[in-house]
Amino acid sequence: MLGVRKRICSPKEEESELRRGPWTLEEDTLLTHYITLHGEGRWNMLARGAGLKRTGKSCRLRWLNYLKPDIKRGNLTPQEQLLILELHSKWGNRWSKIAQHLPGRTDNEIKNYWRTKVQKEARQLNIEANSKRFLDAVRSYWMPRLIQKIEQASYSSSLTTLDSLADREVRSTSSNLPVHNSLPTLLCPPESRFTHYSNPGSENSFSVTSPYLLSTNSNTISQQPDEILENPSCSPLLGDTVCNNLILSDTYNKEGSSYDMDGFNVASAGMGTHDNSPLECQVAEGNWVFDSMEDTLWNMDDMWVFRDLRETGI
DNA sequence: AAATGAGGCAACCGCAGTTTC
DNA sequence: AGAAACTGCGGTTGCCTCATT
């Protein structure tokens, strides 16, 4: 495709000068500075304008996957992992589409996560990662485990909150904060494909009737009715009873509310009963990342359970 | 201490769709 | 209108780091 458009130099000349491989700090600075002044877009022109000996593609990739200010760093949170699993089960390898629902995460990062973590586990278990069997396992075992992790983290954080309140001698004023009587028990017999949580001590009890479908727009999560409705296949799998104070999303709000990402639903404090209203979450931004948690989706318990699952032939 | 292997991730490639001239 | 350039996406590669032998 030889250009009709004006070129500063011929493609061959240009190509011979092009740099490849890892970006240097100087290149990063040049790119960031140029984009700060002139904005994104027209990447080939931008590359030349910034004085970078890189292709426009390379600049775009570097910016979108690494330099852009709102990019999140660090391990994926259990919530994010859960969302990835759910959305992947729905859309497959549509990484950019999935990434749109995880603010600050890039398609590349999600793709890498899937390939290094999820596919690896599937390989080790001799299951095709895109098979229905694997999908069932993910939905029946690993998603609940993640939810459990999320709730446990929530529980810990609420304890921490209470402790810190106590330290400040104001605990008595916050007696309305719910305290879990017990952690949820995962009751998930191998023969069942459904997920059940129970927390006998909790008065709050909900039913999950649809996938944990959350969509994001900027920094908010909003339920997207169409997407949920177009995915009836997910509902039966997740139409399970969940007790306790935790549910990720589910019944979309017919009034069309949206939720703050920071409020992404690990419902703990102040949760009412489920009455088809959107569930809200009291997890503050600082708790969104569970540093102490394993960054991997699977742990040894998961593996043990899954081997059990294999034997039972799901 | 050196060699080896695995994991993680940034970057590249090829293709398809869109935009620009 | 059509060719060229641009953009975005998904798949793949290769390099770096760290753990293990």
From TrEMBL:
Q: What is its main location?
A: nucleus
Q: Which residues cross the membrane?
A: none
Q: Which SMART domains match?
A: SANT (SM00717)
Its source organism is Populus alba x Populus x berolinensis
Mind telling me which InterPro entries this protein's record contains? EOBI/EOBII-like_plant, Homeodomain-like_sf, Myb_dom, SANT/Myb
Provide the Gene Ontology terms for cellular component.
Answer: nucleus
UniProt domain Myb-like: residue ranges: 15-67, 68-118
Q: Which CDD domains match?
A: SANT (cd00167)
PANTHER family membership: MYB TRANSCRIPTION FACTOR-RELATED-RELATED, TRANSCRIPTION FACTOR MYB62
Quote the protein name from its UniProt record: Transcription factor MYB62-like
Q: Where in the cell is it found?
A: Nucleus
Q: GO molecular-function annotation terms?
A: DNA-binding transcription factor activity; sequence-specific DNA binding
Tell me the keywords, alphabetical order.
DNA-binding, Nucleus, Repeat, Transcription, Transcription regulation
